[in-house]
TrEMBL record:
GN (gene name): yojN
Organism whose genome encodes this protein: Siminovitchia fordii
Name the UniProt record assigns to this protein: AAA+ ATPase domain-containing protein
CDD domains, alphabetized: AAA
Domain of life (superkingdom): Bacteria
InterPro entries: AAA+_ATPase, ATPase_dyneun-rel_AAA, CbbQ/NirQ/NorQ/GpvN, ClpA/B, P-loop_NTPase
Length: 291
């Protein structure tokens, strides 16, 4: 990504954050490995985060949303705390929980901070993956940390936490998936939304080389073609979106190093699908490429 294209004051903000976090080592900072045909995706995300905006990444599974978040963490040299949402995500999963500890024979109730509190107190990044999988009644707790207040009254302790200036929030959603719910408009309006499209063509070839063990040029080209053909089927409604997941494709490429590529497609992609007609559609496409 050509960071030189960023405005001078934005680059100054990035350098300021790097200096602020040069002494942190306890939270992993992701590699700068996000690849996309549209370079403005990364540049715009960097600008928005530099300006203190919250970012909502929208895109299909395996499109690189988490990789983008890790790349931003790397760009700012800023540690990142993650929340992986599910239907079971509750207030404790976000904020932390109380536990009983013993000190010199005396039992005490101690609060163990969760990822939201840690990120706010340390001024780190907070990554909320699959935010639209969480229960709608859980998410309003985030409203006050996502607007100008940047503070939270913890319902578990009644304490007020105010975020440090460098605190930033990146969230990610897959719209329309089973178990997801539409985001409340009041919550969505607190984000700058960035669409992450499917990776295709030459960029996908680079992703496979970067992320998988496969180094056979001809086979890589075949898998790029497979991805393109699967995406056509997804858009036609013949197979579900997860069949064209880049994550699944990378798994399949890894398997293809050690087994027949058609068998790798079966293990890595088609057998994950529920309906026999969907499995057959994937294997029919793969058989035309791999024989």
């Amino acid at each position: 990504m050509n960071i030189a294209e960023l405005p001078g004051d934005i680059k100054s903000m990035i350098e300021k954050r790097k200096r602020a976090f040069s002494y942190y080592h306890e939270e992993m900072i992701g590699e700068h490995g996000f690849l996309a045909e549209d370079e403005t995706i990364f540049l715009d995300a960097a600008i928005a985060l530099s300006l203190g905006k919250n970012i909502l990444l929208k895109g299909p599974t395996g499109s690189g949303k988490t990789r983008l978040a890790e790349s931003l963490s790397n760009l700012f040299s800023q540690p990142m705390h993650s929340v992986n949402c599910s239907v079971d995500t509750d207030t404790e999963a976000l904020l932390g929980f109380k536990t009983i500890t013993q000190n010199e024979g005396v039992n005490r109730i101690e609060f163990i901070p969760g990822p939201v509190i840690k990120a706010m107190e340390k001024g780190h990044l907070l990554y909320i993956d699959e935010i639209n999988m969480a229960k709608p009644e859980t998410l309003p707790i985030l409203n006050s940390i996502l607007d100008y207040r940047r503070m939270l009254t913890n319902p578990l302790t009644a304490e007020v936490t105010r975020a440090k200036e460098t605190f930033g929030v990146i969230a990610a959603i897959n719209e329309g998936y089973i178990g997801t719910v539409p985001l409340n408009e009041a919550l969505k309006n607190r984000f700058v939304v960035i669409d992450i499209p499917y990776v295709q063509g030459g960029i996908l070839k680079d992703v496979i080389k970067q992320e998988s063990k496969l180094n056979n040029e001809k086979m890589i080209e075949q898998f790029v073609r497979l991805s393109s053909d699967l995406l056509v089927q997804v858009k036609s409604g013949i197979i579900p979106e997860e069949a064209a997941s880049i994550r699944a494709l990378i798994d399949t490429c890894d398997l293809a190093v050690y087994m027949d590529p058609l068998r790798a497609v079966r293990r890595g992609i088609s057998d994950k699908l529920e309906e026999e007609r969907e499995k057959a559609a994937v294997l029919n496409i793969a058989s035309t490429l791999f024989g």
